[in-house]
Write a structure and sequence with these properties.
The complex is a heterodimer. By secondary structure, chain A is mainly alpha-helical. In chain A, about 45% of the residues lie in helices and about 0% in strands. In chain A, helix 5 packs across helix 6 and helix 30 packs across helix 31. About 0% of the residues of chain A have low confidence. Chain B is mainly α. Chains A and B meet through helix 32 and helix 35 of A and helix 1, helix 2, helix 3, helix 5 and helix 8 of B.
Chain lengths: ~675, ~280
């Protein structure tokens, strides 16, 4: 024990002295070069690098007045601390040594990442802060003083710089120019208002991230927070257009500031007093105004004010929304300012609808750039978009089948998606249905239209589990109008119990075909019934078809014969064992009496579904059938044989008769 | 022409012929409408129902056929009465008479044996009386058929009324009997009866006697020698000699007869085909 302890103490002491020695040696050598020693050479204004003649002169005054004035040269230029002449090429200064926190942030930023990628144009600390003359940001002479920031950032981010020429993925252009003419820029540059926002106010200084990065201060979800650093109570101003609760609870649903106030050009130009509709109409009032479209044709840019008239109940006109509110991507740097402004992004004001739409089949296809996919304006119209309560609106219930049918029909856009064997004429089938007749013939606006079942924005194919027409949701969808029926279904034997496999239970559309939903008294509906029930009740339907009711129902006019639901009931169907069922006990008498007035209990003992082939349950029928069959076969065998024997004899007879007649002659 | 004038003798009275016309019309109607229901899921049945517009029309026609059937069934007793009154016999001896009686008797058993021998060439042609045994079978087949199909048919026609006296479950039995007996009847008439009377080579293509009512004396002598001998013996031959059937009646006989034959044959072959495909297909 004692020896090991001693050994340990020995090792510890050894290590201690070794460390002490190293520290002493290194600190001695660090202290070995003073600033004066460095300036002996670098104080010379003519001192240049051997390799490229660039100056390596250090202005001692500037250095002394900089924020690092008290630091030694070798604190930063560590590899210059040599006994003899330092290497001709020193490594770049690593600011991380002292500014570790900032360094880490920088490394994660778009600038830092570009640098580690080896991008020669990526800025490092000194690009913005300078080298020996670094000043605190509060110093008006500092490169990062608020008034200097646009220039500092603009050094790279101005149009025509090597950076903007090579980094085409940056989708903002004329950043510096736009900024200088913006509200913020003018405040800063014209009025010298140092509280005006500059680049770093929004983008931060070190943590600059692209807007697509969720952590970015200018990401859609963070923009409001960023703007609100200055515009603290801005939501109060916007509560006129954005519901207060939305602002408080569902901030993701409100448009982000930049969707209305374009970044870098956040000026009053968005408001009609400066960029009025009259200004736009100077050009767009011309019916001959056209531009080239993607397909090589021409596209009219004429805006018909008649069409966009308040009188016609256009929603946006009612709200007095100016052209530029929607066509927000105008740029005063361009001539005309609206050129290449691209399509209107409705989600700026309608983010909630947009979120839903994005998840729909239409939205998904549109995201895939499917040329056949509809966007907002395809249904709502462009300038003439009206409230759905307006009968002229394409989304008024009365017009919806036509609207949807403009794509969902054979030969139209959506026809490419119609699968083999599926309904090819949805619209004409619909117009023949009870819903369609109600809407089209009777003009009943409460009739179900396409959108009633499929929804307006969240349209999904039936196979999608979230679709309103998925078999798990169909009943709930129908229930929105047919509440009473749904309630009956829920008490019936056909209700899907919680957790059960829903494919084993019928949904509304199984019996009432989706688009061709017919009035239940219609012949087509009644004659289809057995086939629908057969999907699950095969045996029962087979035996039904052997009964008088079933056979009659297969013939012309068969809809008048008793169908499944006439005896078993429809929505509130119960098993015959249930006392409330239509076929239990006294109820059966009542049920039969619907067609057979005067029927009594004895009448109801008729076995509707019984067959002679079921010996176990119907031995009487079985034996009678076979007796009859034996009688039939016996008779035919006997007389068949008789006939067969007769044929040759009869032939001979005939021939003899003919001979006899000839002889007579 | 050196040929002597053909002599015609009456076999069926006008009343008998009208009754048989009623049988043909009602039977074809019943068969056509009934089979369309029995084989409802066959395309031809659908076509028949569509032709008449609705299964309800088939039902009405079927019931009209039923009324006609009951009518001829009861009216034919008058015919029997008339035929009996032409003889001097008591009713029973008329019915069981060897030569003119309609009830099968020992003579028929003998003739069956003789006929079979004749068929195979082991004996001469039997000397039949007024009714051969197969004709008697035809008659009683209809007699039995009308009773059985008629009674079950009434059950199905008036189910609410009959279930006051019998259980509703018996209607299932009535349905089977009605339907299968009808199958037997149509099958028998459209094959065996058609062959025995019309299609067999001696009579081919049609025996018009049921429409014209008369046969030649030669035919009577050849086919029913015992009846001829009886008529001669009783001195009634002159009573039954009639004029040659008028031309219009002959034309009617062929047109109507062929139509009925065609419908019947069509129906029976369709039924045979359907049953064959259902059983073996």
């Amino acid at each position: 024990m004692k020896t090991t302890t001693r050994k340990k103490i020995g090792i510890f002491t050894g290590v201690f002295f070794a460390v002490l020695l190293t520290i002493t040696v290194s600190s001695r050598s660090a202290l070995s070069m003073s600033n004066e020693e460095c300036l002996e050479c670098h104080g010379d204004e003519d001192l240049t690098r051997e390799s490229n003649d660039s100056s390596v002169y250090v202005n001692a005054e500037i250095l002394a007045s900089s924020i690092h004035g008290d630091e030694d040269c070798i604190s930063c230029h560590q590899d210059a601390d040599t006994e003899d002449e330092h290497p001709s090429k020193l490594t770049k200064v690593n600011c991380d040594e002292c500014h570790e926190d900032v360094g880490k942030i920088y490394e994660e930023s778009i600038h830092g990442k570009a640098r580690s990628r080896g991008d020669a144009l990526a800025p490092y600390c000194y690009t913005c802060h300078g080298t020996h003359g670094i000043l605190p940001p509060s110093d008006p002479n500092s490169k990062v003083y608020v008034t200097n920031i646009p220039k500092t950032c603009g050094h790279c981010h101005k149009e025509g710089s090597p950076m903007t020429k090579t980094h085409e993925n940056i989708d903002q252009h004329n950043v510096l120019q736009n900024f200088s003419m913006s509200m913020h820029g003018k405040g800063l540059l014209k009025s010298g208002l140092i509280v005006a926002a500059v680049c770093t106010s929004c983008h931060t200084s070190h943590n600059v991230l692209p807007h697509t990065d969720p952590a970015s201060s200018i990401n859609r979800h963070n923009v409001a927070k960023t703007c609100m650093k200055c515009h603290a109570n801005i939501e109060r101003t916007h509560q006129k257009v954005i519901r207060k609760t939305l602002w408080e609870k569902e901030t993701h649903k409100i448009p982000s500031c930049v969707e209305c106030h374009q970044p870098h050009i956040e000026r009053q130009i968005m408001y009609s007093d400066s960029l009025t509709d009259d200004f736009c109409m100077k050009c767009h009032d011309d019916p001959n105004l056209v531009m080239a479209n993607d397909e090589g044709g021409i596209k009219s840019l004429y805006v018909d004010l008649e069409e966009y008239d308040e009188f016609r109940g256009t929603l946006h006109k009612k709200e007095k929304i100016a052209c530029v509110k929607c066509h927000s991507n105008v740029d005063i740097a361009r001539e005309p300012i609206c050129i290449n402004s691209g399509p209107v992004d409705c989600s700026a004001c309608h983010p909630e609808e947009n979120d839903i739409f994005q998840k729909s089949i239409h939205g998904k296809l549109l995201a895939k750039l499917d040329p056949n996919a509809p966007g907002c304006t395809d249904c709502h119209g462009k300038h003439a978009n009206m409230s759905k309560a307006n009968p002229d609106s394409p989304i008024n219930p009365i017009n919806i089948p036509l609207l949807c049918g403009s794509c969902h029909q054979e030969g139209k856009k959506a026809a490419v998606r119609i699968k083999k064997g599926h309904e090819h004429n949805i619209v004409s089938t619909y117009s023949m249905s009870i819903h369609g007749k109600g809407l089209v013939k009777s003009g009943l606006l409460v009739s179900a239209t396409c959108a009633s079942c499929h929804t307006g924005h969240s349209i999904l194919p039936q196979s999608d589990p979230d679709s309103t027409v998925n078999r798990n949701h169909v009943t709930a969808t129908c229930e929105t109008c047919h509440y009473g029926v749904a309630r009956k279904i829920k008490q019936s034997v056909h209700n899907t119990p919680v957790g059960a496999d829903s494919s084993r239970f019928p949904t509304c559309s199984d019996c009432h075909s989706a688009h061709g939903a017919a009035r239940i008294t219609e012949a087509a509906f009644r004659k289809q019934q057995a086939a629908e029930c057969e999907k699950c009740h095969q045996e029962q339907v087979e035996t039904y078809r052997e009964s008088y009711h079933g056979k009659a129902s297969m013939l012309a006019g068969g809809e008048r014969a008793a169908q499944c639901s006439d005896c078993h009931g429809s929505h509130s169907m119960l098993p015959a064992t249930d006392p409330d069922a239509t076929l239990s006990g006294d109820n059966a008498v009542r049920t039969c009496r619907k067609c057979h007035p005067g029927a009594n209990l004895s009448f109801t003992t008729y076995r509707t579904h019984a067959t002679h082939s079921d010996k176990e349950h119907n031995p009487d029928m079985y034996y009678v059938f076979w007796s009859m069959t034996i009688l039939l076969l016996g008779t035919f065998s006997l007389f068949g044989l008789h006939t067969l024997l007769w044929i040759p004899r009869s032939l001979k007879e005939r021939l003899e008769l003919r001979k006899a007649r000839k002889q007579k002659k | 022409m050196s040929k002597t004038k053909t002599i015609y003798v009456q076999r069926f009275t006008v009343f008998a012929r009208v009754l048989h016309l009623t049988v043909i019309i009602s039977f074809l109607t019943l068969a056509l409408t009934g089979m369309a229901l029995k084989f409802a899921d066959e395309p031809w049945a659908g076509a028949i129902a569509s032709f008449f517009g609705s299964f309800k029309v088939l039902g009405v026609l079927h019931r009209i056929g039923a009324v006609l059937t009951f009518a001829y069934f009861f009216l034919h007793f008058i015919l029997i009465y008339q035929n009996w009154r032409k003889t001097n016999k008591s009713l029973l001896s008329f019915l069981f008479d060897k030569t003119i009686g309609m009830v099968p008797n020992l003579q028929d058993l003998k003739e069956i044996g003789q006929t079979l021998k004749w068929f195979v060439g082991k004996g001469p042609k039997p000397r039949y009386g007024r009714w051969t045994y197969w004709e008697k079978f035809d008659y009683f087949a209809v007699f039995w058929g009308v009773a059985v199909i008629g009674l079950t048919g009434i059950c199905l026609w008036f189910p609410v009324w009959v279930t006051q006296y019998i259980p509703g479950s018996w209607l299932n039995i009535a349905t089977i009997i009605h339907s299968d007996e009808a199958l037997l009847a149509t099958g028998f008439i459209f094959t065996i009866h058609f062959f025995n009377t019309h299609i067999r080579p001696e009579k081919y293509p049609l025996d018009r006697v049921i429409f014209t009512g008369s046969i030649t004396l030669d035919e009577l002598k050849h086919e029913r020698p015992r009846e001829y001998e009886m008529l001669v013996k009783e001195g009634r031959l002159d009573d039954v000699i009639v004029d040659k059937p008028p031309r219009w009646l002959v034309i009617f006989a062929y047109v109507f007869g062929f139509t009925a034959l065609t419908i019947g044959m069509f129906l029976v072959f369709t039924i045979i085909y359907t049953i064959a495909t259902l059983t073996f297909g």
